[in-house]
Design a protein that fits this description.
Helices cover about 25% and strands about 30% of the residues. The chain is an alpha/beta fold. It folds into 2 domains: about 150 residues, 3-Layer(bba) Sandwich (Glucose Oxidase, domain 1); about 210 residues, 3-Layer(aba) Sandwich (Rossmann fold). The strands form 3 sheets. It has a 10-stranded mixed β-sheet, sandwiched between helices. It has a 7-stranded mixed β-barrel with strand order 1-2-8-6-4-3-9.
Length: about 375
């Protein structure tokens, strides 16, 4: 079946329908990963967005029952050059197309994704629509695109009740703003006993739980929209409890301490972004998925110092707070999909909590 992708700048791409045939309006972004499409589709940070895969062949190893990063896919659409007709892998349980149909995800293939990516790189991410209708009102669809906004996505992706994952080590509270399963898997692998809380949980409830530390997860959307959450993050910061924050959590902590954020032209999405750890003096390849960034010159030097920077564009990728036991990064050390170069940060969180507890015992 024919499918058409229309961008809000009027550009039109005609291709073949994959997945659901329902019309979908969403923000179009691109991801440079060569593999990991199932993890990408189920990453809550893509809520409200359609993903353009820059690698031309997608679906060649199918899908399985193990690689979902959350309870359901969150990407609104998938845009690719070529869909592999079958999956070849010992874990494969269904084709990617069957997966898309089962979950109601609209897609399009057989379009020039290189040309589409160039538009999004040069003009910036923009809204678009995919339709399978033979006859459509282009101007009406463009007006619909102009009205579309990615809002309220943290509320959609967070858990609706407290969950517990036992572990032999330190007890931590994890704020779920749209966390990926591999985040809890990596925390658990480092020994943490994890209690997962919904995004709007009051800080006083968590602080009353006797936890050794707090983790602020990744998540979708504009961080500045999360006004109530930012106020609770400020209370967590002021409490002095050790905190490790990733992606959206990193942005919320920065906003809670007086910094500002901005929307990037096309964001960082992929598994090959080089980031330099300034303290270690080493460069690591990281997995990333974000469309907003903290303004480096908005950081109060008395509050925090830059710990990581993006080698490609110099943007801020991490902060170490000077007055509290808090550190945050913009990238995804838990990977899935992506390299595991920065898994050491989870061990650093263990060390941060240990040092904090020793300090408290010394002053008791």
């Amino acid at each position: 079946m024919k499918a058409t992708l229309i961008l809000e700048n009027g550009a039109v791409f005609e291709g073949e329908s994959i997945g659901s045939t329902e019309d979908v309006v969403c923000e179009m972004v691109f991801n440079t990963s060569m593999v990991g499409y199932q993890e990408i589709l189920t990453d809550p940070s893509y809520a409200g967005q359609g993903v353009v895969m820059t690698y031309p062949l997608i679906g060649n190893y199918g899908t399985n029952d193990y690689d979902d990063e959350s309870r359901r896919p969150w990407a609104e659409a998938l845009i690719i050059r070529h869909l592999a007709p079958r999956g070849s892998n010992f874990r494969c349980t269904s084709t990617l197309n069957d997966y898309l149909i089962r979950h109601g995800i609209t897609g399009i293939q057989d379009i020039d994704t290189r040309a589409l990516t160039r538009i999004l790189r040069i003009q910036g991410v923009m809204n678009g629509v995919i339709t399978c209708r033979e006859v459509y009102d282009k101007e009406a669809l463009i007006r619909q695109m102009h009205e579309y906004r990615v809002t309220g996505v943290v509320e959609r992706t967070t858990v609706d009740k407290v969950e517990h994952i036992p572990g032999p080590g330190y007890k931590i509270a994890l704020y779920d703003f749209g966390e990926k399963r591999n985040m809890t898997a990596r925390l658990n692998a480092h020994g943490f006993d994890i209690t997962i809380y919904p995004a709007h949980t009051p800080a006083k409830e968590v602080l009353a739980g006797g936890y050794d530390g707090v983790m602020l997860s990744n998540g979708p959307g504009d961080p500045a929209e999360c006004v109530e959450i930012i106020a609770e993050v400020r209370r967590l910061y002021e409490s002095g409890i050790p905190i490790f924050a990733i992606c959206l959590g990193h942005q919320l902590m920065a906003l809670a301490t007086g910094a500002s954020s901005r929307k990037m032209r096309f964001g960082h999405r992929g598994g090959n972004h080089p980031v330099k750890d300034l303290r270690r003096g080493r460069c690591y390849i990281t997995s990333q998925n974000h469309g907003y960034v903290i303004e480096g010159d908005s950081i109060d030097p008395k509050v925090a110092e830059v710990s990581h920077v993006n080698v490609n564009d110099g943007s801020l990728e991490g902060l170490r707070y000077l007055q509290k036991p808090v550190f945050t990064v913009q990238f995804h050390p838990e990977a899935s999909p992506g390299p595991v170069d920065t898994d050491y940060l989870f061990e650093y969180f263990v060390e941060l909590i240990r040092a904090h507890k020793e300090k408290e015992a010394k002053h008791a």
